[in-house]
């Protein structure tokens, strides 16, 4: 029997690298591996379904399911493993010294259905007592204001609206911070200090 041709899109993680390079073979499958950054993988798969198997944000998947889209089936494999306490950055010259100080402050997020944002909202609420409506939320991409949601049916619960500016204009060094965080690194760049776990 001929191997089943399947295409997978996933980021370059050390724990899947041998599978993607072909060093480890998949029995009965002719695997074509595509390697992109997660933002591109999620966008293209949610919008266009260009391949058979895809790395997918848990938040995007849950948002799609909640909106009635049951066209995808999730399996319990988690290639991205980041500690989400390290994803909130504050100004080193600002008044925020602990996570509770974020009440009444402005926080920028790229998308509401992003897994990291869902975890951080829950972390603020349940670990630090900061409710969703006690934050002035601003949705924007690094380079563009009001970045659209990839999961179009997402219910947006927020106080703030798009700022008319990208996060790159509002936060010094945000591109470097975002890249280092996405790669699992620490970021103490420019006048940005610490993360929620260190406040």
How do the helices and strands line up, and which of them pair or pack?
Blueprint: E1 4-10, H1 17-21, E2 29-35, H2 38-48, E3 53-54, H3 58-66, E4 90-91, E5 106-109, H4 115-128, E6 136-139, H5 167-170, H6 174-182, E7 192-193
Parallel strand pairs: 1-2, 1-3, 5-6
Antiparallel strand pairs: 4-7
- The total beta strand count reads 7
Q: What's the architecture of the largest domain in CATH terms?
A: 3-Layer(aba) Sandwich
**Distance between the terminal alpha carbons, to the nearest Å?**
58 Å
Outline the low-pLDDT stretches: 153-161, 185-199
What are its keywords?
199 residues; 7 strands; 26% helix; 14% strand; elongated; disordered C terminus
Explained architecture:
- The protein is built from 6 helices and 7 strands.
- It has 199 residues and is an alpha/beta fold.
- It has helices at residues 17-21, 38-48, 58-66, 115-128, 167-170, 174-182, and strands at 4-10, 29-35, 53-54, 90-91, 106-109, 136-139, 192-193.
- It has 2 domains: 4-55, no CATH class; 84-198, D-Maltodextrin-Binding Protein, domain 2 (3-Layer(aba) Sandwich), CATH 3.40.190.
- Helix content is 26%, strand content 14%.
- The protein has a 3-stranded parallel beta sheet with strand order 2-1-3. Strands 4-7 form a two-stranded antiparallel ribbon. Strands 5-6 form a two-stranded parallel sheet.
- The radius of gyration is 19 Å and the shape is elongated.
- Residues 153-161 and 185-199 have low confidence and may be disordered.
- Strand 1 (4-10), helix 1 (17-21) and strand 2 form a beta-alpha-beta unit.
């Amino acid at each position: 029997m001929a191997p089943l041709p399947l295409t997978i899109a996933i980021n370059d993680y050390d724990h899947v690298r041998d599978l993607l390079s072909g060093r480890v073979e998949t029995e009965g499958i002719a695997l074509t591996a595509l390697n992109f950054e997660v933002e591109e993988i999620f966008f293209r798969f949610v919008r266009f379904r260009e391949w058979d198997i895809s790395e997918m944000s848990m938040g995007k998947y849950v948002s799609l399911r909640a909106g009635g889209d049951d066209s995808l089936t999730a399996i319990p494999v988690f290639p991205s493993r980041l500690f989400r306490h390290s994803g909130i950055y504050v100004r080193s010259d600002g008044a925020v010294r602990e996570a509770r100080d974020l009440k009444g402050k402005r926080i920028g997020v790229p998308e509401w259905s992003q897994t990291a944002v869902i975890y951080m909202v829950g972390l603020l609420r349940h670990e630090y007592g900061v409710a969703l409506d006690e934050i002035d939320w601003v949705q924007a991409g690094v380079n563009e204001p009001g970045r659209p949601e990839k999961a179009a049916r997402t219910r947006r619960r927020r106080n703030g609206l798009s700022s008319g500016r990208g996060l790159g204009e509002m936060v010094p060094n945000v591109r470097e911070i975002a890249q280092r965080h996405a790669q699992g690194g620490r970021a103490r760049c420019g006048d940005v200090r610490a993360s929620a776990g260190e406040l």
